[in-house]
Amino acid sequence: MDNSRYEAGLAKAKSVIGDKLVDKLLNDFKDVAPDMSRFVIEHVWADLFCRPELDVKTRELAAISSLATLGSAPLQLKAHINGALNVGCTPEEIIEVLLQVMALAGVPAAMNAIMSAREVFQERDLLKSVSR
Questions:
Q1: Is 19 exposed, middle or buried (CB count within 10 Å of its CB: 0-12, 13-18, 19+)?
Q2: Residue 49 DSSP symbol
Q3: Rounded to whole angstroms, how far apart are CA atoms 51 and 55?
Q4: How large is the C-alpha radius of gyration of the chain?
Q5: CB burial readout 66-79, b (16+ within 10 A) else e
Q6: pTM for the whole thing?
């Protein structure tokens, strides 16, 4: 079996969301649905995040917006907020995206997403840097 697609996706995921969160993804499903992790690595990270048409910062902001709009994926939202910070997004940019979510997906979705962002910012000691 050709593992190049898996390896490319794994490298991209680790470069964006970090080793710890990727290892969690790989371990969380290994005893119940081991193919789930492989599908996420290959389809999301290799097939989508490795495409050249958008830079990874833009992809992370789109992921944050989509996950916030869903309102049912707080762990994934936090992973992508961390990823966005890792690739150069500022806390202010992330909050601005979440304010846009409020206009299009509703206040509750934005409020919950901002609380997730707050947790990530606190963990990374960034809360004090948010200007608004």
A1: exposed
A2: T
A3: 8
A4: 15
A5: ebbbebebbebbbb
A6: 0.91
Q: CATH class for domain 54-132?
A: mainly alpha
Residue with tokens 């390896």, as numbered in its chain: 7
**pLDDT tens by residue, 77-116:** 999 999 999 999 999 999 999 999 999 999 999 999 999 9
Task: Label each residue of 90-103 as H, E or C.
Answer: CHHHHHHHHHHHHH
Distance CA 112, CA 78 (A): 11
Q: In the chain, where are the structural domains located?
A: 1-53, 54-132
Taking 3-state DSSP, the helix, strand and coil percentages for the chain, each rounded to the nearest 5, stand at 75, 0, 25
Token match 């690595």: residue?
A: 41
